[in-house]
Design goal:
single chain, 281 residues, alpha/beta, Rossmann fold, 8-stranded mixed beta sheet, two-stranded antiparallel ribbon, 8 helices, 10 strands, 30% helix, SAM-dependent_MTases_sf
């Protein structure tokens, strides 16, 4: 059921902008991205006065919004988390879980919240969109941010064992992160199925994201002997090998051994950006 097409930032709309998702969710499905948000944006959130954080498209259950609220309250007791859903029935089902600092509203990419959010988490909401619509959704979300704010948009498997997300600021996409549970793949390129919408159809020869996954698989093969010490050690060695030829983040909080140990790999968006953005209608 489509309410409206994604319209350019600044457009006026009377109805929520976006499409109802499948609503699939579950406990700890978004733990990996939440852990990354706290590592990368925790200082920003902790130092802000009553920052607004939006969980966009939380799904049929508000469980992941509740988890985000609990995790962020540990670093800033004044944070306000607002779950935004385009399905009125899902909003109604979430209302009994409201408490001081946690609320749920009807809406979409226009983000009908009282103050510009410092952070927006949008997970598993753009899978059914066309690539050009996904770009416009990014533009709309970025235009709603508070100064210095960030958007984290991505997708993950049903139980969260494979995930990929893009970090964006007001100027555009900044980073791409791949994250996996070590028992969740045979080869790193299996993460391709979870690439954000603007990249998933670009995993073809000639595109940079395809080259990254190809080279990551090669590094995985070269580092096979490390498998004797476990999948974690092999992954860490493969990421280190990849860093010889790709601008893999090597400094905390984006990179380094601590992030690699968690099954993460982050690169600048410029390293994997599509060769050409679709034309805006």
């Amino acid at each position: 059921m489509r309410h409206t097409a994604v319209t350019p930032a600044g457009s006026r709309t009377r109805r929520p902008v976006g499409t109802i998702t499948r609503g699939t969710t579950g406990h700890n499905r978004l733990r990996r991205v939440d852990r990354w948000i706290i590592a990368v944006h925790g200082r920003m959130l902790a130092s802000a006065d009553r920052p607004v954080v939006v969980d966009l498209g939380y799904g049929a259950s508000p469980v992941t919004t509740l988890e985000l609220f609990t995790r962020l309250r540990r670093i800033n007791p004044g944070v306000e988390v607002i779950g935004v859903e385009i399905d009125p029935a899902r909003v109604a089902a979430a209302l009994p879980y409201e408490r001081p600092g946690l609320s749920f509203v009807l809406g979409g990419f226009e983000l009908p919240v009282p103050r510009p959010p410092l952070l927006v988490r949008a997970f598993n909401v753009l899978r059914q969109y066309d690539e050009d619509e996904a770009w416009r959704a990014w533009d709309m979300l970025r235009s709603r941010l508070a100064p210095g704010g960030a958007v984290v948009e991505g997708t993950c498997s049903e139980i969260g064992h494979r995930a990929a997300w893009v970090g964006l600021n007001a100027d555009g996409p900044v980073t791409l992160t791949l994250a996996t549970r070590f028992a969740g793949f045979d080869r790193p390129s299996a993460l391709a199925e979870r690439l954000p919408k603007v990249l998933i159809h670009r995993n073809v020869s000639g595109e940079r994201i395809h080259a990254l996954l190809r080279d990551l698989d090669h590094a995985w093969d070269v580092c096979a002997p490390y498998g004797a010490y476990g999948v974690r050690q092999r992954w860490m060695a493969a990421v280190a090998q990849l860093a010889a030829t790709w601008p893999v983040a090597v400094f905390p909080p984006l990179g380094g051994r601590a992030r690699s140990r968690l099954g993460e790999l982050t690169v600048p968006w410029s390293a994997v950006a599509p060769s050409k953005r679709p034309a805006t209608p």
